[in-house]
Amino acid sequence: MNQEGVAVENTPPSKKELKAAHKVWFKKQLFKQKELVLISIPFVLYILVFNYFPLTGWAMAFQDYSPAKGFFDQKWVGFANFMQLFSDETFPKVIRNTFFMSLINLVLGFVFSILFALLLNEVKNKTVKKVLQTVSYLPYFLSWIIVTGIVLDVLSPQTGVINQVLMTFHLINKPINFLADPKYFWWIVGFSNVWKNTGWGSIIYLSSMASINSELYEAADIDGANKLQKMWHVTLPGIKPTIFILLLINIGNLLNAGFEVQYLLGNGLVSGVSQTIDIFVLKYGISLNNYSLATAAGIFNGLISVTLIYLANKAARAAGEESLF
Q1: pLDDT interval class at 1 (50, 70, 90)
Q2: In the structure, what pLDDT confidence band is assigned to residue 17 with cuts at 50, 70 and 90?
Q3: What is the pLDDT at residue 70?
Q4: How far does Cα 82 stand from its chain's mean position?
């Protein structure tokens, strides 16, 4: 009521007033955090220059691109390159190879990293634990050139330790040329990734395990739980949010099986199962100078990755689990 005792309506602020108030609030917050804003400028510029500006090259997918011509002198062909891409008889095989190798890498990587972290978490001797961690991390810092060289030596039909062990135990009659048989190739790539990345991949899980309340383990001890039961009922539920976040991130990479290991281990005998989208892009973009078709393949890969992340994130939110956004 006003001074005369007359009721006055409290009218809600207009959109214009809300917008003006939001601007004032934003300026105040920006001024309060000016140091953080200044520090973040170089990183924002880095992302714009090296992550977003190169996306202008996607225009090549809609052109009959020729390096000899300027950007505005190119012939625009619409979706002709995409039509050529999907009419290529090798491209469906390339997608199949990429998807299944990525799936094998994803499953094996998650299983072995989590299992290794669980086992390492049970090691109470700090010295032994540090030694095991250091040894398991080392392969991650080796280049794929070295790793594939080790794989070639281990799987060699003449001197490879795998063939020698199998022959010693009379499991095979003659040495197997693993890298010449297509049925072994995907699994060789998968276990090569496991050997190289398991130790490094376990770091995040170990950090997550360290944040679990120790009282939960004490309560489990009082209830008579053994180590396996504590892993299942205390440790795994404690790191479940971390598992879901990493799973969502990796689902977006289902069409990024890698390039180095397939390129270095591949040969003419297994080319039907070793060629990935990245190798396809290299072949057409560099070897055959068909930059437009290679760019179209890269765009397809990127769009599928974004779609997979979105769908996986939506499914996680619908299930009430951790999500990225």
Answers
A1: low
A2: confident
A3: 83
A4: 25
pTM assigned to the model = 0.81
